[in-house]
């Protein structure tokens, strides 16, 4: 690639990389690798994500971890969070929850909603640190203020269960609605569940039908069991719809 082309790659911002890679061709991937080798953190983070997911390349979690680490050490906040995910889940490296805490904390301190959310999850579970539910709630609220749908759903759970506060069913309902509208499949379930409890079965069904689009297989299987045992016929019928019927099969 010509030196002028390399200079262009070195100057690209995140939006520019998105536009360049939209074509999905070999030349775009080669440009991504070239920029990564020349130390461009955003390119390194994008390449790592593609290697982790097998997006346009053969999946290679080990190489993904290498590029996430380089990008994180060069202050790419998304890479910090993803390096935390790799450490937490053992993607391309040994599981090391304390290192996950370290990278999530850095990402959270830089203002990344995903870093806040992931660190809060470890705080809730006491993984890699002492259990700290009030601290977790503070982080979930910070992420929720940035419109992070999963964090909004969990703040709703705090309100519903009365964790660290007085239980408030109306606030929980409002937050679950926001989480569902933001695309969180757990938020869809909680919002649909409360709609059904309020006798709004038709609205509940409409919301619950969104779950299979983004749900994990395990969660979808649990939802199918919940639907199949529901007292309301229209909700029971959802369990037999194609999107739900294959769950757990």
Automatic annotation (TrEMBL):
It holds the Pfam family Sel1. SMART domains: SEL1. It comes from Duganella levis. This is Sel1 repeat family protein. It comes from the Bacteria. Transmembrane segments: none annotated. InterPro entries: Sel1-like, Sel1_AlgK, TPR-like_helical_dom_sf.
